[in-house]
């Protein structure tokens, strides 16, 4: 393994040239795309999906190279973020560029393609328990060759930069074609009253991340009071692989998974209330049942359900990620079907961190209500959701493993515990049981208390974020 990958990385030490390896680390950071090692931090985003005309490959390569000139390097992104924290001045527009396996082929760059079986076959051909791709939105059912991610601090700038990029695509005389001209994959950060990021069901999101940058690890340890119960540290090798088309010895890239997940908010919140009321009436526990905390694994304000049955007044900043499930071996606090336990089982599984990804998702879709207002009639039934995005070094070991072996497996991590209550597939009962008396009793697992079908896959694909020197070499 490359010694750069077999470690965590202090980007500040690399920038300050404090060790003999700093020069190589700095070169790597200047050639690596941003958003992989740390989220780009922009509030508004747009994902543009592109197909190339194989008969116009040279013109398509020139277009890709022109975008490569605009792509943000990891070092620039990190320096911009540091400057923003100190001065409040935005780092400007963020741009990243990804290719599918068929995208490499369409460009005539097959020899520059990274080797990964799942990447080569693409998401449509993989057994993930997903809906048929013929039921996906048309641009996802089509053959996708590339994706361009644009991020900006405000909506107006995002729209301007997005439209400019669309115009550049349209100016290629058909060498590149924009597949989603309706911009249905425009995203925006949503926040609650505590200024924490949330998803459309109203729960604080994006808390639990594996960390490969030493600065982030040190900050997480400080927030944990100096000691990790759950250590989020990973090596760079869990995110990066060599980029075959790169022009440096330290050219790396990362495999990227994109999935558009539509949320039936009204359906979920209505079912959440009905099941909570029903279980409270049936079991008469010492406190009213909050089934949503069981299904998600956290209260709406981000407090882990495994730590306390009472969310009132307990919200902290940042939300707590320093916990495991060692004190809950039978799932009587946070049920095994709870989303955060299914997707990140922590102490339930040996070496569970090896399957985690760097998630960079963002909500999409406009709504006029307050997600946390406890009303039901004003909640959307569609047109909103999550743009799931994640970087990793091995799609099968990370994303696909989590989907197949954890999320969609009704016998993980104990037999008969049901699928993930949020994103589990396929739709239908799976034996989920929810907490009715915290730490003491679960529900019966009846069909009327199952959570399923409130999140629908609208499409997705596997990509690779290549090195910047590769992109620029296509001129």
What does this structure look like?
With 475 residues, the chain is α+β, with helices and mostly antiparallel strands. It folds into 2 domains: 11-190 and 210-260 and 461-472, no CATH class; 263-459, no CATH class. It has 14 helices and 15 strands. The chain has helices at 11-16, 22-31, 57-68, 74-87, 101-106, 117-121, 138-141, 155-170, 214-223, 265-283, 291-296, 339-343, 396-407, 468-472, and strands at 44-52, 94-99, 146-152, 176-178, 186-188, 190-191, 197-198, 241-242, 252-263, 358-359, 362-364, 385-392, 435-437, 441-442, 455-465. The strands form 4 sheets. Strands 8, 9, 10, 11, 12 and 15 form a 6-stranded antiparallel sheet that branches. 50% of the residues are buried.
Order of helices and strands: HHEHHEHHHEHEEEEHEEHHHEEEHEEEH
How many DSSP helices? Answer: 14
CA radius of gyration: 22 Å
Shape: globular
- Indicate the proportion of strand residues: 15-25%
Low-confidence stretches: none
How far is the N terminus from the C terminus? 31 Å
Number of strands: 15
Q: Kindly give the count of domains.
A: 2
The secondary structure category is: alpha+beta
Helix content: 25-40%
Mean pLDDT: 96
Sheet of most strands: 6 strands, antiparallel
Organism: Paraburkholderia steynii
Protein name: Dyp-type peroxidase family
Region (Disordered): 410-433
GO cellular component, one term: cytosol
In brief:
The chain is of the alpha+beta class and 475 residues long.
């Amino acid at each position: 393994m490359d010694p750069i990958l077999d470690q965590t990385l202090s980007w500040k030490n690399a920038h300050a040239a404090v060790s003999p390896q700093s020069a190589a680390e700095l070169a790597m950071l200047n050639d690596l795309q941003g958003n992989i090692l740390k989220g780009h931090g922009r509030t508004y985003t747009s994902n543009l999906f592109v197909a190339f005309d194989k008969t116009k490959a040279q013109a398509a390569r020139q277009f890709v190279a022109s975008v490569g000139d605009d792509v943000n390097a990891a070092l620039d992104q990190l320096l911009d973020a540091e400057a923003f924290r100190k001065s409040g001045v935005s780092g400007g527009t963020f741009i990243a560029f990804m290719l599918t396996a068929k995208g490499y082929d369409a460009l005539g760059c097959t020899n520059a393609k990274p080797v990964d079986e799942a990447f080569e076959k693409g998401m449509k051909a993989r057994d993930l328990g997903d809906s048929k791709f013929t039921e996906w939105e048309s641009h996802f059912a089509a053959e996708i060759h590339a994706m361009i991610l644009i991020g900006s601090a405000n909506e107006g700038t995002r729209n301007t930069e997005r439209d400019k990029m669309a115009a550049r695509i349209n100016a290629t005389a058909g060498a590149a074609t924009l597949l989603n001209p309706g911009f249905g994959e425009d995203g925006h950060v949503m926040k609650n009253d505590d200024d924490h990021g949330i998803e459309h069901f109203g729960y604080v999101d994006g808390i639990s991340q594996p960390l490969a940058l030493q600065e982030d690890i040190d900050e997480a340890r400080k927030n944990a009071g100096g000691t990790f119960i759950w250590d989020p540290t990973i090596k760079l090798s869990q995110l990066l692989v060599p980029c075959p088309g790169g022009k440096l010895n330290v050219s790396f890239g990362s495999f990227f998974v994109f999935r558009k997940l539509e949320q039936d908010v009204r359906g979920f919140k209505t079912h959440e209330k009905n099941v909570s009321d029903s279980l409270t009436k049936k079991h008469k526990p010492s406190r009213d049942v909050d089934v949503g905390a069981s299904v998600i694994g956290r209260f709406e304000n981000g407090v882990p359900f495994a730590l306390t049955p009472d969310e009132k007044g307990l919200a902290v900043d940042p939300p707590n990620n320093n916990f495991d499930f060692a004190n809950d071996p039978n799932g009587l606090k946070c049920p095994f079907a709870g989303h955060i336990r299914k997707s990140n089982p922590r102490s339930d599984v040996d070496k569970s961190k090896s399957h985690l990804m760097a998630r960079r998702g963002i909500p999409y879709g406009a709504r006029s209500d307050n997600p946390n207002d406890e009303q039901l009639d004003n909640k959307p039934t569609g047109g909103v959701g999550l743009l799931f995005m994640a970087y990793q070094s091995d799609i099968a070991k990370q994303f696909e493993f989590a989907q197949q072996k954890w999320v969609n497996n009704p016998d993980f991590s104990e037999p008969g515990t049901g699928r993930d209550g949020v994103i589990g597939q396929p739709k239908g009962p799976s034996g989920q049981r929810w907490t009715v008396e915290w730490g003491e009793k679960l529900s019966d697992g009846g069909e009327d208390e199952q959570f399923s079908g409130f999140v629908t896959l609208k499409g997705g694909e596997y990509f690779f974020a290549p090195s910047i020197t590769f992109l620029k070499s296509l001129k």
